[in-house]
Amino acid sequence: MGKTATADTVKQHGNGNGHAYTAEDITVLKGLEAVRRRPAMYIGDISARGLHHLVYEVVDNSIDEALAGFARNIDVVINKDGSVTVTDDGRGIPTDIHKDEKRSALEVVMTMLHAGGKFDKNTYKVSGGLHGVGVSVVNALSEWMEVEVYRDGKVSFQKYKRGEPVAAVKETGKAERGKSGTKVTFMPDGQIFKNRSFKFDTLAERLRELAFLNSQVTLRIVDLRNKSEQEEVFHFKGGLVEFVRYIDATRTAIMKKLFYAQGSGKDENGRIVEVEVAFQYNADYSENIFTYVNNINTHEGGTHLVGFRTALTRTLNNYAYKNGILKEGGLSLSGDDFREGFTGVVSVKVPEPQFEGQTKTKLGNSEVKSIVEGVLGPALGNWLEENPPDARRILEKSMRAAEAREAARKARDLTRRKNALTSGGLPGKLADCSINDPEHCELYLVEGDSAGGSAKQGRDRRFQAILPLKGKILNVEKARLNKILENEEIRNIFTAVGTGVGEEFNAAKIRYGKIILMCDADVDGSHIRTLLLTLLYRHMKELLELGHVYIAQPPLFKLKKGKQEFYAYDEDERDEIVKRLAGEKGDKGQKGDGQRPYTEGEEVHEEGAQVTSSGVIISRFKGLGEMNPEQLWATTMNPETRTILQVSIENAADADRTFSILMGDDVEPRREFIEKNAKYVRNLDV
């Protein structure tokens, strides 16, 4: 309170420089100017994530038409110039004059925040999109936008520049008989987005997800930027059933019949809430549940997830006792036991969703809990009675999970007793930092004792902690928690991070705001990094969701000319440095296949080094251990000069599927994944 009062005093009486705080200092941002001033408030950020969010906002409008029962086809085209066109066959945005604004309703929708049909529940019973600002925000953040509306037998058109209409809405022709819909084309603004290049695969993942959630819709995406045009069409008549099978494609199902239920209930105002659930059990050990509200992925769960888990646990327990599989006074099964090897999707359509939580993706409507319970409980009870072999397999797996849970508890207790004998209960290998504030602390998980030693010497001891890791940790994709806790390296990670794991996980207890994975830039390093990411995703997923996990980017090359030293993080940067050092008359470097780009005047200089004709010595780092502490600090650990990549989960269902492909038992999907994505991996000398 004291700080706020002091600030207000300065504003009211002056700032010490003779400037008074008056009404003239109040800035009023008109129209969409507020969006351009603070774009991150509306789309999250202005990085690649925010860029792609522009497309999602436009597509959400088309999905709203589908939810209302009109649109059936949605096309997304990445044009040759980098702009994007989204077309649907819905009713088309109204173009007649708005009674209050005295201008075309199309212009109102495209240029005013919080204007649109989703605010009128007679127009859309439910609608997607999280904030209700939608296409007008896209317009504000676009260099230009063009909209064509096919409605009432005519074609209407309007163009905008940075959110402002170029001219009034005009009729440009007659629509084909029976044709209706909206076509939006926009070019993201280079003044806002440094990188305006859309990724086909990123957009395709979201469209695939929407197609699973809306079985009546066909979504198509086309990329016209390359000669060999990319195209994918998504239509899943089976909806959530096909979604679960897609997620679990690389796992072995233990159920012969996948569970599906659909139903509805009324909220406190008598409005219909629709519920859809699909799930199956597999032979693995992790829980994979994905929840959606009006097509929004609710990463933090909410009342619909609580209702689902309550009904699942109660119904399975009742069946087990009723059929003598469990006995009174014997082994008891908790909700966690029923989640092992579980993959499911819960989708609800709520007329007035109330979101809460840090990322505004946690459903808060209290009545939804009982509605989901009311749909799932009876449906699952009937399904269990009709499918006794599947019911028994589910319960047998849950009983084994309960036994493993008890073993894991004993392992945790043993770990606590061992830790009590060490200083502060922390791993002996951990070189901790002196600051205690997690917001300012970093933990480096470093591949190898040699690199760990260099990192310990080169770090800033005030805020950087180092935990060296020996060899490759256990692949947690194939192990229960009790086996995982037997691995010393993993126990050290859990203890150092401080949040606990499993049912004891608490993100508020994290000891470091940044957890940075620092591995060699070779195949083994990539494997270790993937093992670590799998561990964090499966057992500390919230750390990734909250943005605590990063990947260090050590350089691949050291370049030296005379007393000058430079570092390059990839082949392109290496080539640019060589050109700069070589000058006009010297060797500028010749790009070849990325393996041996220098041929003119090349000679061997020291082990593994190359020397260009202009005297630039190029050395390739084979591992972090080759760097001395000063080099490691300067290139990889110094916050002023380093590059680190933040790990985020853009699409949880696809992330889960990717981890199961990379770390599961099925070899063929892994081979296909590597072949498809090899183009994104930088060239390695292996």
Compact overview of the structure:
This protein has 686 residues and is α+β, with helices and mostly antiparallel strands. Helix content is 35%, strand content 20%.
Give the arrangement of secondary structure elements.
Layout: H1 2-13, H2 33-37, H3 40-43, H4 48-67, E1 73-78, E2 84-88, H5 105-111, H6 134-140, E3 142-151, E4 154-161, E5 164-165, E6 170-174, E7 181-188, H7 200-213, E8 218-223, E9 230-234, H8 240-247, E10 259-266, E11 272-281, E12 288-293, E13 296-297, H9 303-322, E14 342-349, E15 355-356, E16 362-363, H10 367-386, H11 388-419, E17 442-447, H12 449-458, E18 464-469, H13 481-484, H14 488-497, E19 514-518, H15 523-539, H16 541-545, E20 549-552, E21 557-561, E22 564-568, H17 571-582, E23 603-604, E24 610-611, E25 617-620, H18 629-637, E26 644-646, H19 652-663, H20 667-677
Parallel strand pairs: 1-8, 12-14, 17-18, 17-19, 19-20
Antiparallel strand pairs: 1-2, 2-7, 3-4, 3-7, 4-5, 4-6, 8-9, 10-11, 11-14, 12-13, 15-16, 20-26, 21-22, 21-25, 23-24, 24-25
Helix pairs in contact: 4-6, 4-7, 9-10, 12-18, 15-19
Task: Give an overview in words.
- With 686 residues, the protein is of the alpha+beta class.
- The chain has 5 domains: 2-33, no CATH class; 34-234, Heat Shock Protein 90 (2-Layer Sandwich), CATH 3.30.565; 240-407, Ribosomal Protein S5, domain 2 (2-Layer Sandwich), CATH 3.30.230; 429-553 and 646-665, 3-Layer(aba) Sandwich (Rossmann fold), CATH 3.40.50.670; 557-620, no CATH class.
- It has 20 helices and 26 strands.
- The strands form 5 sheets. Strands 1, 2, 3, 4, 5, 6, 7, 8 and 9 form a 9-stranded mixed β-sheet that branches. A 5-stranded mixed β-sheet has the order 10-11-14-12-13, with helices on both faces. It has a 5-stranded mixed β-sheet with strand order 18-17-19-20-26, with helices on both faces.
- A hairpin with a 5-residue loop joins strand 10 and strand 11 (272-281).
- Helix 15 crosses helix 19 (652-663).
- The longest helix is centred in the middle third of the chain and has 32 residues, at 388-419.
- The N and C termini lie far apart (60 Å).
- Residues 1-19, 25-29, 584-606 and 679-686 have low confidence and may be disordered.
